[in-house]
Amino acid sequence: MLYYSLVLFILESWFYWVKLKVAYFESSTWIIAFWLACFLFSFVHIFLVMMDGWSRYQNYKRAKDQFYMYGFTKRISNLYIGSKCQRNAALVAAKELGIEDQVEAYYTSMGIKWYHYVPYFMVKDPLFLFKRYFWKRTFHEKPYRPKFDFRKLQLQLSI
Fold first, then answer.
1. Is 157 helix (H, G, I), strand (E, B) or coil?
2. How far is CA 11 from CA 15, 40, 47, 80, in A?
3. 94-135 pLDDT per residue, tens
4. Confidence at residue 74, expressed as pLDDT on a 0 to 100 scale
5. Domains contained in the chain, number
6. What is the extent of the structural domain holding 74?
7. What's residue 106's pLDDT?
8. pLDDT at 130
9. H or E element: which one contains 38?
10. Is the pLDDT of residue 159 over 70?
11. What confidence score (pLDDT) does residue 118 get?
12. H/E/C letters for each residue in 52-107?
């Protein structure tokens, strides 16, 4: 999903940039300001999506280690229940460890549907943009170094 968003924002930025250039030479200040705002919105989102993807990759590595060490637990699954992207990171990690069905069943039992894209904290707290936890959890997840080398483990199991 994040890759689709990234491509969409790149295309939008290009479209708005073309409109902005035309408006700059042929239109009034209000129209220039409109296209500039559209362009900046789209352009900034390119970087936000990339940062979000990096944070979800950190979630994936952490979830994979936790599921490997402890197996399926509700407590671990709850750490990644907040947004569609976090759940996807946990589900990919669980799938690689053979416990995807358990994690998915748990999320379903918690009332999560396939169309729940908007993170729950956004619904609960409309002022989320002004909260530190949003910026930290969404775009500034700390780098996570995996505890296990799964490639090496897989090679050992296949021998």
1. helix
2. 6, 13, 14, 30
3. 999 999 999 999 999 999 988 887 777 777 888 888 888 778
4. 96
5. 1
6. 2-158
7. 96
8. 85
9. helix 29-70
10. no
11. 77
12. HHHHHHHHHHHHHHHHHHHCCCHHHHHHCCCCHHHHHHHHHHHHHHCCHHHHHHHH
CA distance 25 to 11: 22
Q: Report the distance separating Cα 45 and Cα 122, nearest Å.
A: 17
Q: How confident is the model at residue 42 (pLDDT cuts 50, 70, 90)?
A: very high
Rounded distance between C-alpha atoms, residue 76 and residue 87, angstroms: 11
Nearest by Cα to 4 from 64, 84, 93: 84
The number of beta carbons lying within 10 Å of the beta carbon of residue 62 is 22
How far apart (Å, rounded) are the C-alpha atoms in residues 147 and 15?
A: 44
Count other C-beta atoms under 10 Å from residue 80's C-beta.
Answer: 24
Q: What is the spatial distance between Cα 119 and Cα 115, in angstroms, rounded to a whole number? A: 11
